[in-house]
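User: I'll paste a sequence; please echo it back and then give the predicted structure.

Assistant: Echoing your sequence first, then the prediction.
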Amino acid sequence: MKPAFLDIDAITADLGTKIIICCGSGGVGKTTTAAAIAVRAAEAGRKVVVLTIDPARRLAQSLGLGELDNTPRPVAGLDPVNGGSLDAMMLDMKRTFDDVVLAHSSPAKAEAILSNPFYQALSSSFAGTQEYMAMEKLGQLHTQAEADGSWDLIVVDTPPARSALDFLDAPEHLSSLLDGRFLRMLLAPTKGPFRIMSVGFNLVSSAMNKVLGAQILTDVQTFVSAFEALFGGFRQRAQETFTLLSSDHTTFVVVATAERDALREAAYFVDRLSDEDMPLSGVVVNRVHATELRVSAERAISIAEDLDSEQQLPIEEVALRRHADLMRVIAREKLMMERFASARPEVPRALVQALPTDVTDLSSLRSVGALLAAED
């Protein structure tokens, strides 16, 4: 049975939909999909901000912006007839973490934290920090939108994590790290419940000093001491973010290509979202191949061999063999999508045909949006 159609226009037209999260593995076109949805929604009349996590800066180029940073920037060149607008930004992980510190601590504490070497490493490259800060920034954008009406739709291009939906776990993981038992033991190894552990801790600390160096442990202890007041805030915002993600105002769109590995990853996304009771709209399958020439691969090869035996001009033979290759690709993609659909028949989908050129400007984003909104 053919899956239901994923109607992106209906989703963006619903003013109750305030957040669309595009998720999927790397290299499947999440950034392009997020941008195309954002452009289409803005030209339909929504006030949109799109947040990308893509370090390749493709979104900035396709939206006609020289660069993107942690501040939303207006996109020019949209069709203004419906009164919509579009802002775009790219997550700056460290800047977002710095803003959290500045917003939730005193100037003296903030200075101590921002200058701490352990914090600088944590905010720049610690595992899970990017995913957490993506959700932190989403929370900030949502708060601003609710407060001043800057936007009525936020489109998020999630980090390209291989382990699907890491960003759902990242808030809890990072907050657990920051108020974890080990870091608190570093802060006060001889106080309260850790008094009995002081001898053992001193032995561990001595060994770590030899391996890592005393300065690293000192930096960690100094960081934890300065950061202690913010621990609870991280956990609270993590819970608020998770609640926001699971609300009726948010919807997830899983993005894939018609390849085995990408669809396997998409299946993981779909199942995980279902397990977490997250609102899933459906799956977008990008770069699907198609042709209007109704000649099978076998027939094309047969004709090409006849031309070769008759010593005809090779250009026709080359074209026929290329067509045969394309028909094999189409058949393989169809089989992969049928297997996915048979296992998850309730999941709506939209197919986006492969374009002959890269997506580099607003016009090509509109083309992707039109393909996305067309029923297959």
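The radius of gyration is 25 Å. The chain is about 55% helix and 10% strand.
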